[in-house]
Amino acid sequence: MQPGPHNAITDVPGVRVGQVERLDAPYLTGTTVVHVPGTAVAGVDVRGGAPGTRETDLLSPVNSNGAVNAIVLTGGSAFGLDTAGSVMRWLEERGEGVRVGQGEYDVVPIVPAAVIFDLARGGDFTARPEPSWGADAIAAATDGPVALGNHGAGAGARARSLKGGVGSASVRLDDGTTVGALVIVNAAGSAIDADGNLYGARYGLGDEFAQLRTPVEPPPPAAPGRNVIPGPPMNTVIAIVATDVPLDKAAAQRMAMVAHDGLARAVDPIHTLVDGDSIFALSTGPAAQGPRLSVTDPAALAQLETVYAAGARTLCRAIVHGMLNAESVQTPAGPIPSYRDTFPSAFSTT
Length: 350
Fold this sequence. Notes:
The protein is 18% helix and 22% strand. It is an alpha+beta fold. Strand 1 (16-22) and strand 2 form a beta hairpin. It is globular and about 60 Å long.
């Protein structure tokens, strides 16, 4: 096994990513959109105690919706859900969605969404994603490299006292199929152990994280009041795992469920009452390849378990890339240092 050409979710055929962010004061937030022009079967699993989501019920295997057109990951807490509306309008203008009439544009695009809490991180509670940012992000979507760190919904993300951000990774399995992940690392928990090592780095493929060393600098303490506004910390890790293996809806939901293991390996603690941890799963594999894999088919179990395990590990690696690519920022409440700036010795070549 090895990473795909971009080591990103866009290595999965049929997946495109676009992002918009603002880092100029008082903004520190953004929006990330994953577009699947050919649609994708999707599932979701929400385990955080304070989620902010849209259109997740229709992904249940017991409901009739067959596929999604895009998924929005955004800052702005529940206010950020408005960005999905402009994504719907962008798709509608192109005739992408569930056909409900005879006209060319008589469609209802299916656009689930999840948010992180980053309100006031840039200094102004109202400086959050505008509804139009969703359309801007999907219009910019490509199947090329994904900008990591302080981009899209990762602009205002943090993981305990360190700057978080967008992370992505992929793997090509031995049978030629691909699994990818994209994550917004914004956790109440920590991505590092007591010695400053990134928890998820041990899951690197080959020499992916071979440059990392145990740092000599002490880890920073958790910063109280790090959300600027008073009250307990509010965060959330949101993510998407994707594969070109054809899955049915139940199998996609199970992929999302297992992917939470990747969060637990890379962030501690996870799934707290102040997190909204949510993971979507996408299958872009066309049904023309044969019957979609089902969790009730004993003949499919071996392949499903391989894909699920790859999804969890790839998400774990994506979190590491999000932390390694995040850049330090200044906020009215003080600096949010990056992993690189906090632990320069971790990158020592001597």
